[in-house]
Amino acid sequence: MENRLGTFLASLRQRKNLTLRDVERDIGVSNAYVSQLEKGKIKAPSPVVLNKLAELYGVKYAVLMKEAGYPVPASREATGADGRFASRMGPVTPEEEEELAEYLAFLRSRKRPG
């Protein structure tokens, strides 16, 4: 069984260079619970915890809710102002989204002001 949410959460935590204990301290959720989320042992994670993790990791709450299997209404924000980017790209995996975001940050860092 695929563990998209857990893999995604673990990659977000590692990207922020946080340990499970750091997450516990920062959001007040036991490191054991976070570990179980990352390993896919919790099948219906708490939306409250997902919200705290989204804030800590700097991702949209709706993204974590969707990865957890909860229904998320479509919004213009989720697809960009007019949806052109999403319609051109099609669905992406969390790993692809992460790589696209890193590449975009790289491209933006190369732009010279002025």
Keywords:
mainly alpha, 2 domains, 114 residues, 434 Repressor (Amino-terminal Domain)
Characterization of the model:
- It is globular and about 45 Å long.
- Helix 4 crosses helix 5 (61-67).
- The chain has two domains: 1-71, lambda repressor-like DNA-binding domains (434 Repressor (Amino-terminal Domain)), CATH 1.10.260; 74-114, no CATH class.
- It has helices at residues 4-15, 20-27, 31-38, 47-57, 61-67, 76-79, 84-89, 94-110.
- By secondary structure, the chain is an all-alpha fold.
- Mean pLDDT is 84; it is low at 76-82.
Low-confidence spans: pLDDT under 50, at least 5 residues? 76-82
CATH topology of the largest domain: 434 Repressor (Amino-terminal Domain)
Helix content: 55-70%
CATH superfamily of the largest domain: lambda repressor-like DNA-binding domains
Short description:
By secondary structure, this protein is mainly α.
Write the layout of secondary structure elements.
Blueprint: H1 4-15, H2 20-27, H3 31-38, H4 47-57, H5 61-67, H6 76-79, H7 84-89, H8 94-110
